[in-house]
Amino acid sequence: LDLDPVLSGADSAAIGAARIVVDPRRGSERGYRHMAIHPYPAELAETVALANGASIDVRPIRPEDAELERRFVAELSEESRYFRFFYRLHELTPQMLARFTQIDYDREMALVALAPDPDSPGGRAFVGVARYITNPDGESAEFAIVTADAWHGRGVGYALMSRLIACARGRGLARLQGAVLRANHGMLRFVGTLGFSTADDPDDPEQVIATLPLRPVDATGASVR
After folding, report:
1. pTM tops 0.85, yes or no
2. Which of 9, 76, 111, 128 is most open to solvent, judged by the fewest CB atoms within 10 Å of its CB?
3. With left for phi above 0 and alpha for psi between -120 and 50, is residue 215 left, alpha or beta?
4. b/e per residue, 183-209, with b = 16+ CB within 10 A?
């Protein structure tokens, strides 16, 4: 962007001419990486049939989902909230709600599962949320997932995580990783079925780190682009 000349006075400034040049290489980038604000990825929305015949809608989270997110977390059992947040939490704060629903789709993703609920706004309620946030290294991302207690064992978690993994792989990330409490035996079994390996967390004996490579690795164990 070239502004020339700019004429300044005591109380104002005037631009005499302006010239903008767009780098022609920007149009060759994959997806929407060239954009300052990534558009809502509507193409990820779909209806998923579960093994028991029920169906859920899976889509990326939206800013207007704040009330659905608040109700979802508030209605989780105390144990489920503890396993998700690692401390005793009763309800999300307004700041947490904004952070969880107003996301940057370029560097993070949050997929939600919705099912019919006549008592919820719009007649649908969250029954699961899975998300990842890219780490500063640009190579890995931290994941988290939680499902409504009444929907445990119905395949909601698998539907969300399998799609979240595909999103992370499509984004070009090398691996997904996340901390899991040792006491959360159900989650440890679940990530194991998805191919995650687990290792002791050197910073916390009550946690393990679950890791899933998203790219092939060479003989040294390094990921291959």
Report:
1. no
2. 9
3. beta
4. ebeebbebbeeeebeeeeeeeeeebbb
Amino acid (1-letter code) at residue 16: G
What value, to the nearest 5°, has the Cα angle with vertex 92 and ends 89 and 94?
Answer: 145
CB 160 within 8 A of CB 58: yes
Q: 143, 134, 151: which is closest to 72 by C-alpha?
A: 151
CA gap 37, 125 in Å, rounded: 28
Dihedral sign (CA 175, 138, 165, 122): positive
Tell me the C-alpha distance between 66 and 75, whole Å.
14
Amino acid identity for residue 31 in this structure: G
Q: How many alpha carbons lie under 13 Å from residue 154 in its C-beta half-sphere? A: 19
What's the CA gap between 225 and 209, in Å, rounded? 23
- Rounded Cα gap, residues 3 and 18, in angstroms: 5
Say how far apart CA 48 and CA 36 lie, in whole Å.
Answer: 32
- Asked if 45 and 29 count as a contact pair (C-beta separation under 8 A), the reply is no
